[in-house]
Every structure is written in structure tokens, then in C-alpha cells.
Write a structure and sequence with these properties.
By secondary structure, the chain is mainly beta. The protein is 0% helix and 61% strand. Strands 2, 4, 5, 6, 9, 10 and 11 form a seven-stranded mixed β-sheet that branches. A hairpin with a 5-residue loop joins strand 5 and strand 6.
């Protein structure tokens, strides 16, 4: 089993910054893909950014140039640096990770952290 604990959400004014963290713990061989999703009220959950174990990343078009995803493999922790935040970035942000346990890969979700951007 893998537990993902998120932190770093909160209330910020438009133009401000927040840094989300996602720490993985438990019994696993490796953390592979890591990603951040978000879900705003009344909307579907969408992928914001993802990063492979080797460091290659991809982003939702609307956050390119403002958000940066990174990871510290030694700490099994992923990060999402969010700059120039906009009110439309308001959502619950979820960490997602795929981990190898023995010879299989499984997906896990964090509990979510609220990000609120005021105008």
C-alpha cells in the first residue's frame, strides 16, 4: 500500500504563488509516474501536470509557463509550484502516483488540498 499526503494548499490573492507537496510512504519498490489533478465545483477532474520518474513533464495548456512540477526521488515527494495564480485555478488539487509493488504497478490518490485564488 502507498499513502500520499498532500500539503501546501490555501487561500491566495490573484497573482500570488503556492507550492503543493505530495509525500509518498508505504511499502513499494518505486514511485513511477506522479501527477497533479484538480477538480473545481461542477467540473470534471482534469490533469494539471505530470512527471515521469526520469523527470520529463507535461502540462495543461492553461498552466504552461505558470506552474512547474518537480520531484525528489530520494524523498519520494512531488511538488507543484504555482505562480501567477488566477481565480480560475481555484479547485481541489489531488496528487496521483503510480507505484511498483513487487512486480505490478498500482495507482494511488491523495486526499486533496484546497486551493482558493481570490480576485
Amino acid at each position: 500500500q502507498v499513502q500520499l499526503v498532500e500539503s501546501g494548499g490555501g487561500l491566495v490573492q490573484a497573482g500570488g504563488s503556492l507550492r503543493l507537496s505530495c509525500a509518498a510512504s508505504g511499502s513499494f519498490f518505486s514511485i513511477n509516474h506522479m501527477g497533479w489533478y484538480r477538480q473545481a465545483p461542477g467540473k470534471q477532474r482534469e490533469l494539471v501536470a505530470a512527471i515521469a520518474s526520469g523527470g520529463s513533464a507535461n502540462y495543461l495548456d492553461s498552466v504552461k509557463g505558470r506552474f512547474t512540477i518537480s520531484r525528489d526521488n530520494a524523498k519520494n515527494t512531488g511538488y507543484l509550484q504555482m505562480n501567477s495564480l488566477k481565480p480560475e485555478d481555484t479547485a481541489v488539487y489531488y496528487c496521483y502516483a503510480r507505484a511498483t509493488i513487487r512486480t505490478s504497478e498500482y495507482g494511488y490518490w491523495g486526499q486533496g488540498t484546497q486551493v482558493t485564488v481570490s480576485s
